[in-house]
Amino acid sequence: MTDTPVIQLVDVTKTYHLEGGDFTALDHVSLEIRENDFVAIMGPSGSGKSTMMNQLGILDVPTSGKLHISGRDVAEMSNLERTHMRRDTIGYIFQKFYLIPLLSAYENVEYPLILKYKKRDTTGKAHTLLEQVGIDRDMSAHRPTQLSGGQQQRVAIARALVNEPKIILCDEPTGNLDSRTGYQIMDILCGLHRDGKTVILVTHDPKIAEYAHRTIRLVDGRVAEL
Amino acid sequence: MIKGDIFFNLSVRSVRLNFLRSMLAAIGIVIGVVAISSMGMLGTNMQLEVKEQLSATANTIIISSDTVRMGPPGFTPSSSSSSGVTKTELTKITSAVGSNGTVIPIYSTNGEFTINSVAGRGLIYGIDPADIGKFLTLNQTYGNGTTEIGTGEVLVGSELAQEFNLKVGTRIRIGLFSSSSRPELRIAGVLNARGTVADGVSTDNAIVVNSNWYTDQYGGKNEWTQVNVIVKDVDSISDIESAIDDKVNTNAKTPSVRITDASSQLATETSTLSTVTTFIMAIGGISLLVAAVSIFNVMMMSVSERVQEIGILLSIGTEKGEVRRMFMYEAFILGLLGAGIGGASSLIIGYSVVDAMIGSTAYFFQPASILYVPAAMLIGVVVCVISGVYPAWRASNMDPIDALRSE
Predict the structure, then answer these.
(1) Which residue from B256, B249, B137 is spatially nearest to B201, judged by alpha carbons?
(2) Fold type of domain A35-63+76-225
(3) Which residue in the set B14, B309, B401 is minimally distant from A54, CB to CB?
(4) Do the Cβ atoms of A83 and B318 come within 8 Å?
């Protein structure tokens, strides 16, 4: 772990304007996540975990405050720059896997490479990554619906890694898996951390959170414990 | 390359996944393409057919009395006024033409006749027997006939002969039904079909009589309805027309004869047919509009069903333009499917329609006709692509968080 903050939130607030009135999902949150950090974000439902992940994944921008990712202020970036940062700097692993149903497992992993280099993968990188997460060549030809939950999450991890992002965001990555498969997935994430990635994990499960080196607890949109 | 484009592959797979729905939407395009190309080809084939028929008489100048300029409404011509081309005018025309062509004076009127106790009405032409053979030919399958008809003989048109089952030797009575004296004449020959002609002598449903018999029956001697000049060299037609005009229409303000040829009639006919063709094609185009709505609907359904997928694409770094491109490809594929099937069907249906309506497919594969197929296909594809613009825009502008949440 280095002292360089790869993610920095300074007094970040996110307010949603709803019919029944404004709702503040993140309330003046300030924190830093350094390079090669392994952070678990915990908290009860409605505490702002998903909103936090959307901010860190640059799927949304703060209502106020500053969010810096890899040294860049997200609010000052254009839509296209944010898209490219999502593609190149952040690997997103979702609870529901969110693989593209029309593509095979291999094509799902190859897809971010095509987005980045505008051509099909000729380096074999997609296959190598799939093999590293335990998906063989036969299985990689299958569509997501033909794979088990654990297999789909492995494909999703390979997809998140293929563009060699600095940051891996995991939103309840074991939430839809049985405990044995969940621990296997966590072993893979620990391996990624060992390889130098910054891993941020949202979870309800304290046992899963124990894999992280640091836990951030959110309550009512505020950081309760660092 | 489009084939290797991941977004094109995604679009192809989406169309395959919803093949039945996609094909139903594409049927609208098929109908539109078939309607436009078939109607276009029909109109063009009609134009080409008319052009060919009129070209056969392109070497003929038609001179008729300029009745339009005889006077204002209610004006009663003096005794010297004539309703036809006069003998003096004919002499001048003959002199102007000289050895460059053949001058044929023709009488004509609408008349009544009776064949085998069945009454009929049609055009009756009075022509000098010596001139008949110069531009009319006989169909000898109805019996050995002759164009050298005497005062008691007639020639009949091909369609009339067919309708009344006539042959050489059959008798025909000409004159008013109410008239007590309706002279009986012998059919001396049946004329070959002429179709649409530009020389003003449409004989297919007409009767041709000896000019002397005509003037005895209807009067108007030396007042010809029209004078045809068949020129030897078609390129000299305007020079001859100018010579006739100079000699006969001495008073430029009140010309006594009107001089026309096939070119003006051809222009009128093709212009009329072109207008009709455009109108019919526009009606065919309405089906494409309906198809556009159908494609739009299918594309909107595709976007609605794939909201979560769009959310995934956007959240992992797909650019808005790339999402737009994916849906535009889908619309393009639907258009290509519809236009392809429509184009192939157009060849079969268009051929059948042209054959049924015109009776000839001689011009079907000519470029002017067959080009309607790719043109209609292109319109079909463009309509589809335009229909896909809004759904594609909507997909690309979705909020990825909302899109991911949707089930």
Answers:
(1) B137
(2) Rossmann fold (3.40.50)
(3) B401
(4) yes
